Amino acid sequence: MTSNGYWQPIGIEEPVMNSSGNNVGIKKYFVFFVGEAPSGIKTNWTMQEYGLSDSAASTSTTRSSSKRRGHSKIDYSNWVICRVYERDEDDDGTELSCLDEVFLSLDDLDEISLPN
């Protein structure tokens, strides 16, 4: 919820796979509505939310923690990356986004660096 509107999930969730075919996360889609729910006006603004899957997050947390002695474990499942963009009327949605390409290029979750 914002002062101008709200993001509503559209019910599309896609698995994010690495180059080895392992499921490393999930991509969810949202659309921005101006006004108050449930009577808001739909806009062309779309958000893709990328998050690590629970198993990938716990594996990465274990690996990272063993490398950083004395530091507390980071729960990567609490972090997401979002891509917000305005869709063109002619957009058919088949082009890969930059974040899609980043996730597809991940072979090892230890490559992900998040702030503490």
What would you note in describing this structure?
- By secondary structure, this protein is of the alpha+beta class.
- The protein has helices at residues 54-67, 98-105, and strands at 5-17, 23-34, 41-52, 80-86.
- The chain starts with a strand and ends in an 11-residue tail after the last helix.
- The mean pLDDT is 76.
Radius of gyration: 17 Å
Kindly estimate the percentage of residues that lie in beta strands according to DSSP. Answer: 35-45%
Helix content: 10-25%
Write down the secondary-structure element order: EEEHEH
State the low-pLDDT regions, or none.
none
User: So what's the overall shape?
Assistant: globular
Distance between the termini: 26 Å
Please outline the major beta sheet: 4 strands, antiparallel
Secondary structure tally: strands = 4
What do the pLDDT scores average to?
Answer: 76
Order of strands across the widest beta sheet? 1-2-3-4
